[in-house]
């Protein structure tokens, strides 16, 4: 129904962005609200999926069309609802997720909250060969692992410092970041912000 919504970002919550369009505020549940936090007061474009169920009508938002497409594909997996799909999109990387599906990498998939071996196998069964993404050679050459990419971790820590967090705060969450599966700097920054604001 809504491909995207473009308007002024007026407020952030832990789970959503409030977008004002001509005096109407749209509450959009986001995979990563912190992606938009620095843009409060500015015009933003959020790709959306309108989800209707018996007791609610909910707008889910994403920073890219690829994230939105992946969310909709994951929703088609038996046993996974919007909350689970949003968690996967929010904590993962689109390319690495697709690579894990194509390579049947259960270890990577079970690293997401609420995803056990049974659900991982179901995702592989339902999604392999059906995800409309083209992996770059650099992604193909990399391997999703159970540990964070060391170079990305260094860059993420520097970015968190630039955002005003103290060394002691970052050091306190560093063990958790090292154990994270994220392989990109952006994903590790999001994970770090999540830990720091808990």
Supply the CATH architecture of the largest domain. Answer: Orthogonal Bundle
Assign an overall shape. Answer: flat
Rg over CA atoms, rounded to whole Å, is 17 Å
Q: What distance lies between the first and last C-alpha atoms, to the nearest angstrom?
A: 34 Å
Can you tell me the CATH topology of the largest domain? DNA polymerase, domain 1
CATH superfamily membership of the largest domain? 5' to 3' exonuclease, C-terminal subdomain
Specify the number of helices.
9
CATH class of the largest domain: Mainly Alpha
Order of helices and strands: EEEEEHHHHHHHHH
Domain unit count: 3
Q: Largest sheet at a glance?
A: 5 strands, mixed, barrel
* Structure classification: alpha+beta
Task: Summarize the amount of helix as a percent range.
Answer: 40-55%
Poorly predicted residue ranges = 136-140
Q: Beta-strand level of the residues, as a percent range? A: 15-25%
InterPro entries: DNA_helicase_Holl-junc_RuvA_I, Hlx-hairpin-Hlx_DNA-bd_motif, NA-bd_OB-fold, RuvA, RuvA_2-like, RuvA_C, RuvA_C_sf
Protein name: Holliday junction branch migration complex subunit RuvA
Keywords: ATP-binding, Cytoplasm, DNA damage, DNA recombination, DNA repair, DNA-binding, Helicase, Hydrolase, Nucleotide-binding
Subcellular location: Cytoplasm
């Amino acid at each position: 129904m809504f491909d995207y919504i473009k308007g002024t970002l007026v407020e952030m919550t832990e789970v959503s962005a409030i977008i004002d369009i001509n005096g109407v505020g749209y509450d959009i549940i986001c995979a990563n609200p912190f992606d938009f936090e620095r843009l409060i007061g500015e015009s933003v474009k959020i790709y959306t999926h309108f989800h209707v169920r018996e007791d609610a009508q909910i707008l889910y938002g994403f920073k890219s069309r690829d994230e939105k497409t992946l969310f909709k594909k994951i929703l088609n997996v038996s046993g996974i609802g919007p909350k689970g799909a949003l968690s996967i999109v929010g904590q993962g990387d689109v390319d690495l997720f697709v690579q894990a599906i194509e390579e049947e990498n259960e270890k990577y998939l079970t690293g997401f909250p609420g995803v056990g071996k049974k659900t991982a196998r179901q995702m592989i069964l339902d999604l392999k060969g059906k995800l409309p993404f083209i992996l770059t050679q650099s992604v193909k050459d990399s391997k999703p692992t159970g540990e964070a990419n060391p170079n990305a971790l260094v860059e993420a820590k520097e970015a968190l410092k630039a955002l005003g967090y103290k060394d002691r705060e970052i050091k306190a969450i560093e063990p958790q970041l090292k154990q994270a599966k994220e392989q990109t700097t952006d994903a590790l920054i999001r994970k770090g912000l999540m830990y720091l604001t808990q």
